[in-house]
Specification:
globular, Rossmann fold, about 260 residues, two-stranded antiparallel sheet
Length: about 260
């Protein structure tokens, strides 16, 4: 009689976990850890503990979209809170294979699809909560991604996280500066998006790393209101209207041909 995934022994789970390659999410699969030697420790659980209380404990009846879901740690946590529907998307088929195995073992009813953040309009629906965690700095076109997330898939809340580098200061800026005003750009609290041409942390998918001022400015520019900042890199946002400034109209197509890298 064949064994179902839900009834695998710890040794069989360990064997399947190892066969699925290197895991970035350390997930507890009935006592078997998928990435017990992660360089960040028990990741992402060590980060999740600092902002888990900023997300409603009871998600009954709510829908969740997890963009860049990786092996599904956050998707699983959303389902544990009773979300009616959780959809995880990622461009990497290896991560999705890990996510499907993990959720099968844990008997979590979660859907996964292989797709790019640039193509979220193709989903044709909005979600009560959108998770966009650890993705921005892997994108060649980060502001485009935020605009598409705002315009096409966010109904209410966006939970955002990005690696940050540079100053944590926030500069109080005027709405405009004259052409000869150059000193402002050298201030630590001016929004800056650092471009990585080659590698950072031995990873060629790290493209743009913002400072804190830049994160907040990009979120506001895309139409999100920051409600909470429970962890250094995490922002809880509500979908609002994009600022009415010249050039802020719907300039992006519903589907973008531009590819991304996760």
């Amino acid at each position: 009689m064949s064994r179902t995934v839900e009834n695998l022994s710890p040794a069989e789970i360990r064997s399947r976990v190892d066969a699925l390659g290197e895991w970035f999410h350390n997930i507890d699969l009935n006592g078997v850890k998928t990435a017990p030697n992660h360089f960040l420790g028990d990741y992402p659980a060590v980060k999740w503990q600092y902002f888990s209380d900023a997300i409603p404990r009871d998600l009954t009846g709510r829908t969740v979209l997890d963009i860049g879901c990786n092996a599904g740690f956050y998707s699983i946590e959303m389902k544990r809170r009773g979300a009616a529907r959780v959809l995880g998307i990622d461009e990497d088929p290896g991560y999705l294979e890990q996510a499907r195995f993990a959720t099968d073992v844990l008997r979590a009813d979660i859907e996964f699809r292989q797709m790019s953040v640039y193509d979220v309009a193709a989903l044709g629906e909005r979600f009560d909560i959108v998770l966009f965690l650890g993705v921005l700095y892997h994108l060649r076109h980060p502001l485009l991604a935020l605009d598409l997330i705002h315009e096409h898939v966010t109904k209410d809340l966006l939970v955002f996280q990005s690696m940050q580098r540079g100053s944590p200061e926030i500069e109080l800026l005027a709405n405009d500066y004259g052409f000869w005003e150059v000193e402002i750009f050298d201030r630590p609290g001016f929004p800056k998006l650092h471009f990585i041409e080659n590698y950072y942390s031995s990873d060629d998918t790290n493209w743009w790393i913002p400072n804190r001022a830049c994160v907040e400015a990009m979120l506001r520019s895309s139409g999100f209101t920051i409600l909470d900042h429970p962890e250094e890199e995490v922002f809880i946002c509500r979908r609002g209207e994009r600022p009415a400034t010249p050039g802020s109209g719907p300039v992006y197509p519903a589907r973008s041909p531009v590819g991304g890298k996760r």
